[in-house]
Amino acid sequence: MMKIKKGDNVIVLTGKDKGKSGSVLKAIPSENKVVIDGINKKKKHIRSRARGAKGQVVEVSLPIHASNVKLKSDAAAKPKKTKK
């Protein structure tokens, strides 16, 4: 069971974005993953659909495993442990 929900403020514990914080945009409990605003961004190339239209390159936030993030307490702005 995930204790992290949509709208929570979290800090990333591992990976290239270690130490960065952001708010949860989407929680995926079935995969135990979360999507965080501004964290784990990748560029995605989108093909043009209509004739004469141009393709685009957009940045997309990819999911990160919930064990790699920790809730950020509001008062102290430090990571907080969650109980199982």
Which short descriptors sum up this protein?
two-stranded antiparallel ribbon, single chain, 43% strand, SH3 type barrels, 84 residues, six-stranded antiparallel β-sheet, mainly beta
Write structural notes for this entry.
This protein has 84 residues and is mainly beta. It has a single domain, classed as SH3 type barrels (Roll). It has strands spanning 9-12, 21-28, 33-36, 41-46, 56-61, 64-65, 69-72, 79-80. The strands form two sheets. A six-stranded antiparallel β-sheet has the order 6-3-2-1-7-8, with no helix packed on it. Strands 4-5 form a two-stranded antiparallel ribbon. Strand 2 and strand 3 form a beta hairpin. The model has no long low-confidence stretch (mean pLDDT 89).
Task: Offer a quick outline of the entry.
The chain is mainly beta and 84 residues long.
Shape: elongated
Number of domains: 1
Helical fraction: under 10%
How far is it from the N-terminal to the C-terminal residue, by CA? 8 Å
SSE order and pairing:
Elements (H helix, E strand, L loop, with lengths): L8 E4 L8 E8 L4 E4 L4 E6 L9 E6 L2 E2 L3 E4 L6 E2 L4
Antiparallel strand pairs: 1-2, 1-7, 2-3, 3-6, 4-5, 7-8
